[in-house]
Amino acid sequence: MYIRPIYRNKDGKRHAYWALMESVRTERGPRSRVVAYLGAMPAGGRRGVAAAAHGHRPVQQGLFEEDSSWVEVDTSRVRVERLRSFGGPWLGRELLRQVGLDEFFAETLRGGREAIPWSVMAQVLVLSRVCEPSSELHIAEHFYGHSAMEDLLGIPAEKVSDDRLYRALDKLLPHKEALERHLKERLGTLFDLEYDLLLYDVTSTYFEGEAAKNPLAQRGYSRDGRGDCKQVCIGLVVSRSGMPLGYEVFAGNRHDSTTLEEIVETMEGRYGRSNRIWVMDRGMVSEEHIEFLQRHGRRYLVGTPKSALKKFECELLSQGWETVREGLEVKKCPSPDGQETFILCRSADRREKEKSMHERFAQRIREGLEKIAKSCAGKRQEPLLIAQRVGRLKGLNSRAAGLFHVTIGTRADGGATVRWKEVEEWRAWSELSEGCYLLRSNVAEWSAEDLWRTYIQLTEAEAAFRIHKSDLRIRPIWHQIPGRVQAHILVCFLAYVLWKTLAQLCRQAGLGDEPRKVFDELKRISLVDVVIPTKTGVEIRKRCVTQPDEHQVILLQLLGLHLPQRLETHKM
Q1: Per-residue DSSP letters for 262-318?
Q2: Which residues, including other chains, have CB under 8 Å from residue 473's CB and lie 6 or more apart?
Q3: Chain-wide mean pLDDT for the chain?
Q4: Terminal alpha carbon distance of the chain
Q5: How many separate domains does the chain show?
Q6: 11 and 49 share a domain?
Q7: DSSP string, 9-40
Q8: How confident is residue 567, by pLDDT bands cut at 50, 70 and 90?
Q9: Structural domain contains residue 440
């Protein structure tokens, strides 16, 4: 079929009227037959009819249902409404699906008569923590309604309340161990991960409020500089790539080293005992813990206290250093019993840093001692009070306190005198040991370089804590109920899994190891409602995703993600 004009003369002017034609075969050959007279038609209408006649679906027809008729659009009043963020929630949901959390929630958080499934509310908690970390109240009153979460999950914004989110936390917490097992298997398969090396470290996060009914909320050493607040400690185990394996929450006043045996036995009970290597920093272990690790044949690589370097003074002075890279040297030193290996490490950058620190603290002590001596010369001072002032001065500058030998005497009138000298032996040892540190391991078959490179991977655990505290805002904790505190930390852990999943995808796609930049780029994609008024007064609404720019298209292609053009939601 096709259309053709039929011309008529009217009022001295030539007018074109249009007819829909079809070709038919007759005994006399092919002939044209009028199917319908269309009358006068604008160019847009003719193109639409011509496309339909040739079997093509007109573009505008996609705005209507299949059985709807044609309407004329008032292009002067076309507008967009309800601009909301789409890229972040959509990307988070794609990551959530890849790690199978949607399936896990659906299977384990089976509900009863609730209006909204707890499995979907759990997704709201995790996705919100990835996209815009905030309180449950902020999620309910601001973030959820101003993002595309409603369109992606199908839950009306009015049904997402802070109370429902709190109850979702309560439903999620009992499945912590099962979640860790699921993620370990899923991520190991997805990225072909190896768990032969486990990195363990501890951090803390503080509370806002008294947290009086939480026995784990205690005051202790705060990594956040908030010694005035109660806190909890979090021990995190990650793989060599930084992918989390599990975590435990401890009282805020526990020393890092007291958590070691508990976390090792917990991980072995959950995943079995195998030939893994535990990597920890020097504040995590003691001789008792070394004996605990050796008792069952566990392998380890740990840092040692600075004081342990004194036993290796001869090795520091001797030759035989192996250059790992410019400015870094290592040396392997077997223990006398042959059961362990010690690795001496010497860093030029670290030497300059420590030297600068020693000089700065030494200068502070000199200036402080001169001030104290001047005050003693000016008037009578109690020797005991002067001794206390000297003690405080050295305590505040402990890194250079050993350099000074201070003598406090008494004058005839009972006033104090202060004399001091610098200990040259301390200065000589300081200059020799600056920039040096010592590692300890029972892995004998590895080279000194391999052991050093393995130990340096502890930065993956430190990076995990930085992401938890900066990007995922695990601190401060506003919850007061113990179970809600635990659930808050669990949601942050799950959000970190999605973060590291994106990091692995970026690494595989050749995009480096900076998922933050990729996420920030893709979250600029928005969702809008396109409103199309018609001449009949009816308004047509379609939810459309903004077109990605050139850089976003490249990122999506490299990550293997396909952005939808329009969304059709079915609300619960």
Answers
A1: HHHHHHHHHH---S-EEEE-GGG--HHHHHHHHHTT-EEEEE--GGGGGGGHHHHHS
A2: 133, 134
A3: 89
A4: 45
A5: 4
A6: yes
A7: EETTEEEEEEEEEEEEEETTEEEEEEEEEEES
A8: confident
A9: no
Is 489 within the bounds of a domain? no
The residue to which tokens 């994609």 are assigned = 525
What is the pTM (predicted TM-score) of this model? 0.81
Output the CA torsion 504→510→512→514 (10° steps). Answer: -60
pLDDT in tens, 146-181: 999 999 999 999 999 999 999 999 999 999 999 999
Measure the CA–CA gap between 196 and 297, rounded to whole angstroms. Answer: 15
Q: The tokens of 343 are what?
A: 């690795």
Q: Is residue 154 part of a domain?
A: yes
Residue 20: how many other CB atoms lie within 10 Å: 17
In one-letter notation, the amino acid at residue 205 is T
Sheet holding 2-10, edge to edge: 2-10, 13-26, 29-39
Cα separation, 543 vs 567, whole angstroms: 6
Higher pLDDT: 20 or 523? It is: 523
Paired tokens of 478:
């506003």
Residue 58: predicted pLDDT = 44
**Per-residue tokens: 170:** 């309560």
Residue 422 and residue 437: Cα distance in Å, rounded?
A: 25
CA distance 530 to 544: 7
Q: Is residue 204 part of a domain?
A: yes
**pLDDT tens per residue, range 357-376:** 999 999 999 999 999 999 99
User: Whole domain around residue 22: which residue ranges?
Assistant: 2-62
CB atoms under 10 Å from CB of 351, counted, come to: 16
Indicate the residue among 418, 433, 448 that finishes a domain. 433
Amino acid at 376: C
Partner residues linked to 207 by β-bridges:
477
